[in-house]
Amino acid sequence: MALVYLGLGTNMGNKVANMESAIQAISLEVGVVMEQSALYDSKPWGFKSENNFLNAAVLVETSLTPTQLLIKTQALEIKIGRSAKTKTGYADRLIDIDILLYDNIILNEPALKIPHLLLHKRDFVLIPLAEIAPDFVHPILQKTIKELCTSSLTN
User: Fold this and answer.
1) Is position 98 annotated as part of the catalytic site?
2) What is the pTM for the complete model shown?
3) According to CATH, what is the number of the domain 2-118?
């Protein structure tokens, strides 16, 4: 079994319901949700929108491989109502499920990068992740999530 941290985000419709649907679907189809952060409000990142995001992080114990996990989370996004991901940037979305960390592995495949490449640059990921995994050491940067969060907030 692997321990996986997922980042969740939504900025359309009933955001709290979208989060609840995503977490329930993850618990039914991915693995046991062991921890869940609070829900955090954030401004859109990487694009303009009048809709703020609701973000969270969850810790899941799963038997899925990283590739199986990617396929499953993408299928769950569609099941919850997300339209196809844009090829040219970011857009409003009902739900986004990102694989942030998978145990301590480093994976660099065309379709999947673990740890998530932008994890350490996004407060909306770091703040909820630091709530549930403050002492987890980023396998590439060799800093704890709490350290990354603190340095991100001071920059």
Assistant:
1) yes
2) 0.90
3) 3.30.70.560
